[in-house]
Every structure is written in structure tokens, then in C-alpha cells.
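Chapter summary example.
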Amino acid sequence: MSNWFLSDIRLVINSRTLRGFSNSGYRILWASNFLSYFARWMQVTVLGWFVLELTDSPLLVSLVGFFGWMPVFALGMYGGLLADISNRKIIILSTQASGFISTFVMAILLLLGTDHFWYAYPLMLITGVAWALDMPSRRSAIHDLVGTPDVTNGVALDSAGMSAARMLGPATAGLMISTVGFGLSYTFITSVYLLATLLISRFEMPTQSRDQSYRKGVLRDLLIGLRYVGSNQALLAVILTTMVMNLLMFPYVNMIPVISRDILYVGADLMGILQGSAGGGAVAGAIVVASILNVRYHGRLFLIGSMVTMITLLIFSFSSWYLLSFILLFVLGIGHSGFSTMQSTSVMLVSIPEMRGKALGVVNLAIGSQPFGALLIGLVAERMGPNSAIMLHSIVGALCLTLIGITLPSIWHTLQPDKLQSRKPENHYLHP
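The structure predicted for these 432 residues follows.
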């Protein structure tokens, strides 16, 4: 009986959950992505606590997130353009190497005993530039490797890796801050970036089609991407939801160090675990999504997952008990898995191949609203406290998501591939 049960589990895992790993290129890409996400989450956690210890200011802590995400707003669509017209391996390798160099410099400064908190800001700015330029290439590479039939599984597994990194990165950072200090913590982050860079150097990217006509002008191509997204109601709903989530939901991360120390009265170690609890929930949710062979309503799962995060975040804003806060952020992570997995999947399923990178670039532009959310939550928290700031953000966010679901009902239906595949994208979407 026991052997039969274990065999059945192995069959389910082999046939469903892990099918994307049958591609050797995907395995290397996944491992490099995981290490990159892990290092970035460690950075956010270490620098957030570092600034808090030196300044006691929620606003200055929130600026870590502001500088980390501002490049995504400024360069998000350009990253999508690069994914369409350039070698994606070179893009990812270059941005990975820049992350290694910047963290190496910061590690040296911290080991020398610097007490200048503003060093955190240019470092996060460099990290943000890398994120903006390489994320569309990473996600487009997934589609190229596993193909349309398994793209949901491929993105879900990547989201599971991202969520695992979101869980393990802050927890590791909190533990290392408490035991070895900031300098050695950052030395470890540097080594992780180096390993991720070495892995991606072994990555063999499949041949990608690049239309040289898209080199005619960056602004022109960005306008094509915007018009293309605006022509499809489902894509527009994805973009607007992404903007709401990044402006009003995700900035809560910047307040976790402040809430941990000043509301929950815990140190860096438990702060890191709390920061990572949402990642644990997201891992669980992403594994469930990856196990589903046929997801019919991608947009529906996307929007419902987003609403779950907002409602859970609202309840979290009233908590002053560590265990309850941990559980709520875990549930928030489950909702986040629906949002993160279906975001890129929905865009890739609906978009024509020539426009996929540009559509993902528009998504990146929407993600780039996060720095403004980080700045806003920091300003409100400075005057009203971190809990009140999170409460206001989550209420407004839930109302916005409700409005999107009502006014753009296509997001609730089965997402169909773009019907204009036979048309030249630049001819149709640049001109009315």
C-alpha cells in the first residue's frame, strides 16, 4: 500500500509539477534565476535593517525600495524591447555581472565599518537597473525553452523559485545580521551573485527570431507596445492590476523592519523570518498551479489572487501579535502566487510572438509604479505609523481591483491568442 502511494505521488510530480525541468536549458536558467532572486531579497532585508538601525526613520527605510524600483519604471519597457531585438543570454549575463560588482563594492564598505546609510541607495539603484533590463528576457526565455503548451508550468516553477528565494533570502539575511553582522552578510550575497553569473554563462539560449525592423527607433517601438496592450481588454486588465498591486500592495515590504522592531518588538532574526513568510505561502501556491495540467481561466486566477493579497494585508495592518502576523503574510503569499504566475503567463498566451517582449516590457513599466508606492507609504508611515499606512494602501487597492474586475470583464473569460497574428505588428499598432 505504501509503495503504491509513493509511486502515485512520483507519477503526479513527474507528469505534472516538474515537467518544465525535463529541459536542460530551463534547469540552468531556473537555478540562476533562483540564486539571483535569493541575493536580491537578502539585499533588501539587510539594507532595510541597516538604514533603520542608523536612522530610525520609516521614510528613509522606504527609500531603499524607492531606489530599487525606480529603474523598473524608467527602463521597464526598454527591457522588453531588448528582449525582442537582442541576445537574451548576453542581457542576463551582463546584468548578473553588474549585480555581482555592485554588491562586492558594498561588502568592502561594510567590512571597513561604514556608518553612512546613504550608500544603500546607489546600490539598490544599480540592482533596479539590472532587474528592469533582464526580467523580460528571463521570462521570454522560459517560453522559448518550454514552448506554449508548458509555459504556464514553466512560469509557475520559476515563480515557485522566486517565492522560495523570497522566503529563504530574508530569513537568511536576518539570521546573518544577528550572528555575523552586515559586512559578512553582504560578503555572502556577493558569493551568491557570483555563482548565479557562472551558471548563466553555461546557459544555451535557443535560437530566437529577431525582427531587425524594430531597430528603427526605441520610442517608436515603445509606442507600438503601448498601443498593442491598449487594443486588448484582457492585457489592459493585467497591466492595470499589476500597477495597482505594485503601487499599493507590495510597498508593505518596506515597512516590515519598522513593524518588526517597533510594533512586534522582535530582532533582526525574527524580522527576516516574518519577511520570508509571504514567500513560503507563495511557494505553496505556485506548486499547486504548476501541478495543474490545464488552467482554463488564467485571468480569473490572476485577479482573485490579487484580491486575496489586498484583503489579507488589510487584516495584517491591525495585528500586533507576531504569530498572527506570520500566518497572515503566509496567506498573502498564497494569493500572491496566483498574481505572479498568471501575470506573465497571461501576457505570453495572448500576445503574438513579435510583440511578446514589448508586452512584457509594458508589464515592467507597470511594475515600475512600485517606487512611488514605496515613497508614499514611507511618507504616510512617518506621520501616522506603519500599520496605518498599510491599512490605507490595502483599502484603496481593494477598491481599485474591484473596479478593474467590473469595467474590464474579459479578464474573467478564457484568454485567447491574439487573432491578428497575420498582420504586421508595426503596421497595425502604430497607426489607428
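To summarize the output: Residues 24-55 form the longest helix (32 residues).
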